[in-house]
Amino acid sequence: MLRIDVAKKLRDFTFSARMDLPAGVTAIVGASGSGKTTLLRLIAGLLRPDSGSVELAGRSLSNGRVFVPPYRRDIGFVFSEYALFPHLSVAQNVGYGLRARGYPAATRRQRVTALLERFEIGAFAGRRTNELSSGQRQRVALARALAFEPKALLLDEPLSALDPHMRDRVRGELRAILADLAIPTLLVTHDEADRSAFSQRVLRLAAGRIVKDAD
After folding, report:
1. Which band of pLDDT confidence, cut at 50, 70 and 90, is reported for residue 212?
2. Domain coordinates of the chain in residue numbers?
3. Does domain 1-74+154-215 have CATH number 3.20.20.70?
4. What global pTM score does this model have?
């Protein structure tokens, strides 16, 4: 269970959200500027709330006394533009979170190899990410987010950088992957097809507040 009860004053409004997210995919929808990415950043620890708390699997990640940094939160994050490291190889990108968390080298190699094969990007292990297609970069980003076996997953418009043809194909692949994960997954999207394909629950944000479960 991922539990969020946070508030953060922004330029145009005060963001405030309270929710309990079980295992499975929850989609967050809303107009641009409604606070969708802010919510993900607060959960991931990339933004510090003014008040409230974030709790994952019974562990407090943020409250008035505790603020766990992102690399210790056991939360995977796939950014809309993937945020891959251009100076690192594909394998190094996938293993980055494992290295940051102090996993032994042998464990890192084993997990990276398994993920590269799972996402069918093993042939690109030594390449830099700027040599890859958008679809291949998306797979690298997802493999990196899953490498350390996170307890929650955040997806910020994960297919938005793909062209329509590639998006349809990758959507099917991502749907199969998410179906196998028994962890809370929060998906931000503007795309009705993504919302329908991935999520069991849909929440709507407006001016930094959850207004209702979307139909």
Report:
1. low
2. 1-74+154-215, 87-149
3. no
4. 0.88
Please state, in angstroms and as integers, the Cα–Cα distance from residue 135 to each residue in 11, 17, 42, 121, following that order. Answer: 35, 33, 27, 10
Cα 125 to its chain centre, rounded Å, is: 22
Partner residues linked to 69 by β-bridges: none
Residue reference for tokens 């510090």: 48
Task: Note whether 142 and 94 are within 8 A (CB).
Answer: no
Q: How many CA atoms lie within 13 A of 111 on its CB side?
A: 21
Crossing angle for the helix pair 164-180 and 134-146, nearest 10 degrees?
A: 20
User: 201: Cβ–Cβ under 8 A, 6 or more apart, which residues?
Assistant: 24, 25, 26, 27, 213
31 close to 13: Cβ distance less than 8 angstroms: no
Mean pLDDT of 196-202: 80
